[in-house]
Amino acid sequence: MRRINVGIIGAGRIGLLHANNIIKSNLLSLQAIADINIDHLMESEWQDKVTMITTNVNDIFNHPNIDAVFICSSTNTHVEYIERAAIAGKHIFCEKPISFNLKETKHALKIVKEKGVKFQSGFNRRYDVHFRKVFESVRENKVGEPHIVKISSRDPSPPTEEYVKHSGGLFMDMTIHDFDMARYLMNSEVIEVSAKAANLVDPMFSKYKDVDTAIITLTFENGALAVIDNSRQAVYGYDQRIEVFGSSGVVSADNELQSNLQISTNRGTILDNPKHFFLERYKEAYVEEINCFARSLLDNLPVSCTGVDGYKAELLAHAANISLQTKAAVKLSELELVEKNVEVL
Amino acid sequence: MRRINVGIIGAGRIGLLHANNIIKSNLLSLQAIADINIDHLMESEWQDKVTMITTNVNDIFNHPNIDAVFICSSTNTHVEYIERAAIAGKHIFCEKPISFNLKETKHALKIVKEKGVKFQSGFNRRYDVHFRKVFESVRENKVGEPHIVKISSRDPSPPTEEYVKHSGGLFMDMTIHDFDMARYLMNSEVIEVSAKAANLVDPMFSKYKDVDTAIITLTFENGALAVIDNSRQAVYGYDQRIEVFGSSGVVSADNELQSNLQISTNRGTILDNPKHFFLERYKEAYVEEINCFARSLLDNLPVSCTGVDGYKAELLAHAANISLQTKAAVKLSELELVEKNVEVL
Amino acid sequence: MRRINVGIIGAGRIGLLHANNIIKSNLLSLQAIADINIDHLMESEWQDKVTMITTNVNDIFNHPNIDAVFICSSTNTHVEYIERAAIAGKHIFCEKPISFNLKETKHALKIVKEKGVKFQSGFNRRYDVHFRKVFESVRENKVGEPHIVKISSRDPSPPTEEYVKHSGGLFMDMTIHDFDMARYLMNSEVIEVSAKAANLVDPMFSKYKDVDTAIITLTFENGALAVIDNSRQAVYGYDQRIEVFGSSGVVSADNELQSNLQISTNRGTILDNPKHFFLERYKEAYVEEINCFARSLLDNLPVSCTGVDGYKAELLAHAANISLQTKAAVKLSELELVEKNVEVL
Amino acid sequence: MRRINVGIIGAGRIGLLHANNIIKSNLLSLQAIADINIDHLMESEWQDKVTMITTNVNDIFNHPNIDAVFICSSTNTHVEYIERAAIAGKHIFCEKPISFNLKETKHALKIVKEKGVKFQSGFNRRYDVHFRKVFESVRENKVGEPHIVKISSRDPSPPTEEYVKHSGGLFMDMTIHDFDMARYLMNSEVIEVSAKAANLVDPMFSKYKDVDTAIITLTFENGALAVIDNSRQAVYGYDQRIEVFGSSGVVSADNELQSNLQISTNRGTILDNPKHFFLERYKEAYVEEINCFARSLLDNLPVSCTGVDGYKAELLAHAANISLQTKAAVKLSELELVEKNVEVL
């Protein structure tokens, strides 16, 4: 069976996660990894696992046998690599966000479109078995017309200061997943965003004009509402719950726990905590995500999470930031007007 | 609306529980309480609540307006009071067990039958909303033909030594409820009993040749099986769970907790304990039990838990004791043969 | 033991609910019921249950033995009856809301203060055992500093058109309970309100410029946030869930189900629905609410839910309405300024 | 890093499951597969995955680089292959049961001991994360002294008639896992077995004097009890639950569900079924099982599940069969006496 030959750009945590999953996949084949720093790969088992480890990204773009590029480098490099990959005729899987700048994101996606390569945005949660079943239940009309989408999304502990500095802020770094999930579940476009936030977890965030706690309300074209609550620190573990309330019922997915253990004593019954963080919680989702990408390429089907999906989530992050500053709801139609160079995709 | 006038014999914990429920019921009216010791009633609000408080049970049997007698005195007095009540033409509600002696139980029930009064056995768990729904689900064929009934029945803490001394032993005092529940849920008669037991909670039990931990297996006429596990001490609270496994599914009722509270911290998620003991757990069931009795009398309908039900549960307790001693399964047909004066009801 | 003698004004659903609970309470004694229409009481058992049934409220205000008045009549009559009761020296229990007009509410509470009578607002959910335990867990610092309070509050089915017409709108009629709960749990005052709403359940609501679906975000003095989601129609039953997320954990109370029944078949495991509506869900809470009121009077203690609590919840309802119209967050400080005749309590 | 070189005997469902897991393991390396029928391997991807595919088991026993043999062939061949592998100096992983004959099992284990090779019995459930945590909780004294071990173990659907014919019967084929789990959790030896069983699922079983529904009670040296209930058909999925009740609490592991999905409508709340069968439910356990075996070999540590563990579980299966026939409890001490050629290991 034919496999998709992959080159990965960026050998950090997420790049190597994809690398390992590609190696185990029957649909993909890892050909090369490029990074500016490859020391950690040279002294390890990676030497056995991948043919080419390089510091020159051109080795990937110019590689005749590479079908697709996984862009897992820093966000500020995404746009350049997307455009170069597209020009080189490589299909693209790109981690979120595409960029911190809507205009640049649009430009990159324009090149992708012109060159006719496929592009998948890296919203891994769409591939989680629990969330996928919630999505399918909504599509199969199990709960009627959706009225309210609720998402609780809380990290187990705050990232490092160094990370926060370059993260793009809570909405662009963390809520962006929830913005995508809300759109995905509602199957309608957001028309208005209203955000409230606070700095309650760690004063460090305020040094970078960032927040660590937030509630964001979305209004959709179909009239329905969504609400997201975020925190950078849920001490009990990675809290990832979704709920879709509709005209004939409600469907939800609660957290995946570390085990089904229950211990009852005279002090109550204790259950295990949720799985610790995204590497454990979304382990299977990451596998499914890249296999979906591979199948889109092998069967020439539309990708399951498009560049426009990536752009829309970024747009919502920008809108949330503006709402926070103006203390008012932000209409997306007005936001796109303000960003005047931003053409409709 | 007409009410059933009641006299209670025995003003202990269970007698006064029924008394309070009768007072609140729209179907029953409390006329008299009799006990050998009424001091605790004379100095309290009971004076306002009930017209007659007496040490002479004849005041109840001879009372022209009393329709029904609740027998809540010590087990060794039940048979005498049942017979006298029946002869006096009073309907009877009798706490479990009817007696410790199968022959005497049968004799009492024979008098009841001859005198044509109604008789309800006090198996309160039949009236629990959760267990009732399990029962109804089985009857409505929600799980197909029953194959296995499972009952976990564990007290929160052992009774006093004084109580144990006169309790009739684990099977007669505690498992008797589970024997009745197994018959009730299976809707078939037991043909064989096999019991294993141990003394693990408190050596005190062994002083009275009693056990505190047991597993009893029942075989039914319909070929199905039941298993009961008991303990005199579940430190996490009153553990009362039932499950009916059948050819097309399984139905169960887990414990009722003290509240729905959930607290998640870095040490896990903690839930509340089950309701502490029968007074809390079966609070509503005791109310429903006596109202069922009242409705049977008011509408002249069969009672919901008969004297034969009481006898059958006692028979199973005897069989379990014999099985424990002989280390073999006991066939009920052989047991009845052995007890030769015991005629089939 | 001395009891509080009570007169009830308003013999509708909630008035009779309190009447029945007062009759069963050891701390209260029902003396009189007044309503403009008493036909439904004259032909029923109520004749036996209460000494005086009258169409003249003065019979209650002038009654020498009545200690406290329960005001359960239409909202538009509350202020008048509060003032007359206070002038008559009667303590007051008043159903929510006190009035639809902040200025009138303040005036009534001013009279109450001047006359020195006690006044309890009828926010029954504070007395629910589950919510009470959540409250206590927060107070006992089980989850650290509260960061986010989340409340899901959805009715099983919309009220009648006649009810909606006089309801005061979603925020004043329904969310008012959630506003009180958020303040109660957070133990801090709200400084800003932001509301989004929609008309998705029934177009009837829009005839009265009302909404049926809403998400409201609150910002508190302590910097924390709360979010409430409402719907007038949750087909699966009365959905009443709360969660307090804090710096060291999260505490929540999920719905109380109709039973613990679980049935597993080849189509999954089915559980019972939540208790249907407030009469079932808050049955015990209503009992506890009036006993708390009675204890405050008997022991001369502060009431557990004050007139100011009632006023504050109304203030939040008004703010939510303004936020909905202006599509902006409403600062409570500005709202009180606008309502210039509204003095600080 | 050094890996254990493995040869697999038997390329059926379980043999190929191990083969796939060995291929993905960092600790093991698959060298050869032997089976009498290898057609299904020759026309598939297995050609790429394993160097040697052979119909001659000697190719494995004589292979100089093979360290360990996985015996996954029919039970009636196990003893021969164990002895030949031991003589060839290969370490052994053997699927359950070792044999249907206690004497033969003992003989094989004697050869293993003489030859000094390591031997692991294939009780995969010991490696399940949930059950492992239950085990550890008991060992860490979280529930005090164990009093009752409860195991529900039910297959989703009966095996084929062909399978049943050679299965060794319910106790040897299916309950054997539960016998091992009970011993593992209790950490004490069984002294007595009492079994009840029925043929309720399919009359086919009775053709082979087999049963499909059973309850087995075990008494342990430490005085505690265990109870196992089995069915060949749980239509809602693979039902695998364990509970250890002790002097200071109870620890349990409920089923792993296919997802956390919950859908609430006016007909109740529906949850997903348990994972379908052992391939899904114990997927991770099978991986952990062989890695444990590998680590025992690499670090020369005792195996985690011994040949004696395999023998003991078989002994319990024989005892259960005798108890079923004799309708009496079977003492293991007497059973070993009866089997006079069976020496104590």
Summarize this structure as a short list of keywords or feature phrases.
alpha/beta; Rossmann fold; Dihydrodipicolinate Reductase, domain 2; 2 domains; seven-stranded mixed beta sheet; six-stranded parallel beta sheet; globular; disordered C terminus
Please provide the count of β strands of chain A: 15
Question: Structurally, how many domains make up the residues of chain A?
Answer: 2
Percent of residues of chain A in beta strands?
A: 15-25%
Major sheet of chain A: order of its strands? 12-11-7-10-9-8-15
- What is the average per-residue confidence, as pLDDT of chain A, rounded to a whole number? 95
How many helices of chain A in DSSP terms? 14
Residues in helices of chain A, as a percent range = 25-40%
Q: Which consecutive residue ranges of chain A, at least 5 long each, have pLDDT under 50?
A: 340-345
User: What is the oligomer described by this structure?
Assistant: homotetramer
CATH class of the largest domain in chain A: Alpha Beta
Spatial gap, N to C terminus of chain A: 36 Å
Supply the CATH superfamily name of the largest domain in chain A. Dihydrodipicolinate Reductase, domain 2
Radius of gyration of chain A: 20 Å
Q: Summarize this, please?
A:
Four copies of one chain form a homotetramer. The relative contact order of chain A is 0.15.
